[in-house]
Amino acid sequence: MNKEVSNKGFMWSDEPEPHKKRTKEIINQHPEIRKLIGRNPYTFLIIIFCVSVQLTLAILLKDGPWWLITVLSYCIGAFACHTLFVCIHECAHNLLFKDRTLNTLSGIIANLPLVFPSSVSFQKYHLKHHSYQGVEELDADMPFRWEARLIDNSTFGKALWLLFYPVFQLLRPLRLTKEIKIFDGWTLVNWIVQFCFLAAIAVLLGWKAILFLVLSFFFSIGLHPLGARWIQEHYLTHGPHQETKSYYGALNTVNLNVGYHNEHHDFPSIPWNKLPHIKRIATSYYDSLGYHTSYTGLLFRFLFDKELSVHSRVARSNRGKTMKTTKTNTNTKYG
C-alpha cells in the first residue's frame, strides 16, 4: 500500500477504504454468507432492558452517597450505556426492523439514558464512515487535526482525551455540514424527547439521578476499559497496513459482538448476533488479521505506549478510487 506518514501527523493513504475488496472476495468464495443478511427485532428488547436498568438504578440512587453513585455508574451504568450505544448503531444500519421509522424511534428510546440527544444525528453520519473511512470531511470517526496535535502521545493528554471523548465525538459531525443535513424534523423530535426525559428525571428524582446518568454515559465511552473500543477499531495498533481491528474477548457478550469490527465493516447488513458466523465461515481471511482480546490491556497500552497517539490513524483524501490488489497478512495478537 502506498502510505506516507510524518513524525507529527496522520498516515496518509492514496487508496480508498479497505473493506470493499475483501467483501467481494469473501462473497465469491462463500456465497452462503448472504443468508446471514437480515434483521434482529429482538434487539429492541435489549434496549428496553438496558433503559430499565438505568432508570431503576437512577431511582435507587436518588438519595445515595456520591461514592456509591460513582462506583455503580462505572461498574454497571457504563456497560448498560455502552450496550445502548451499540443498539443505536444497529438502528442506524436498519438492523432491527424493515421500516426505517421504527429503527429511528428505537434509537431515540435507546438514547434516553445517554443524556445527550445523538441517535438521529449518529444515524445520519455513521454510514458515511463506512463508505469513506478516513476521509476527514466525510468520516466523523476521524479525529480533528487540531485534536490530534493537542493530545499527541502524552499519557496524561491521552487520559484526558478518553475522559472527555464524548465531547470530541459530539463536535466531529460539524465537519460534515456540507454533506449531511445536521438538523431536521427527526433531530428535533430526538431533542424534544431527550430534554423532556431529563427534565422529568430532574423533577421526579433529583440531580443525583442525573449525575448517575451523566457519569454512566461518560464512563461508557471514555476513561474506562470500554473506551478502548475506540482504539481497537481503527487506530494503528498492528502496524501501518491494517486500519481496522476486531476484538475477540469476553466483553462481546455484553457489548452485542461490537468487537467484530472487521466483520461488521465487511458486511454491515448483517446484525450483531450473526457477526461471529462471518468469522467462522471466512476463517482464512480473519485469522490472518491482527486482533485484540483485552480491552483493559489495550487501554493501558494506549495510555503508556509513546508510539501510539491520536495521530495513529490512516487518513485519505481520495473518495472513490478502486482498491488496488493488496492483502494484509498480519497475524499479531495483543492482549
Quick structural overview:
The protein has 335 residues and is mostly helical.
Keywords:
single chain, 335 residues, mainly alpha, three-stranded parallel sheet, globular, disordered C terminus
Structural class: mainly alpha
Report the sheet-strand fraction: under 5%
How helix-rich are the residues, as a percent range? 40-55%
State the domain count: 1
Regions with pLDDT < 50 over 5+ consecutive residues?
321-335
Query: Helices and strands, in N-to-C order?
Result: EEHHHHHHHHHHHEHHHEHEE
Task: Give the rounded overall mean pLDDT.
Answer: 91
Number of helical runs? 15
Describe the biggest sheet?
3 strands, mixed
What is the straight-line distance between the termini?
27 Å
What radius of gyration results from the CA coordinates?
20 Å
Can you offer a commentary on this structure?
With 335 residues, the protein is mainly α. The protein has one domain. The chain has 15 helices and six strands. The protein has a three-stranded mixed β-sheet with strand order 1-2-5, with no helix packed on it. It has a three-stranded parallel β-sheet with strand order 3-4-6. Strand 1 and strand 2 form a beta hairpin. The longest helix is centred in the N-terminal third of the chain and has 27 residues. It is globular, with a radius of gyration of 20 Å. The C terminus is likely disordered.
Task: Give the helix/strand layout.
Elements: E1 3-5, E2 11-13, H1 19-29, H2 43-60, H3 66-92, H4 100-111, H5 119-131, H6 145-151, H7 155-163, H8 165-171, H9 185-204, H10 207-220, H11 229-234, E3 246-247, H12 261-266, H13 275-281, H14 283-286, E4 291-292, H15 295-304, E5 314-316, E6 333-334
Parallel strand pairs: 2-5, 3-4, 4-6
Antiparallel strand pairs: 1-2
Helix pairs in contact: 2-3, 2-10, 3-4, 3-5, 3-10, 9-10
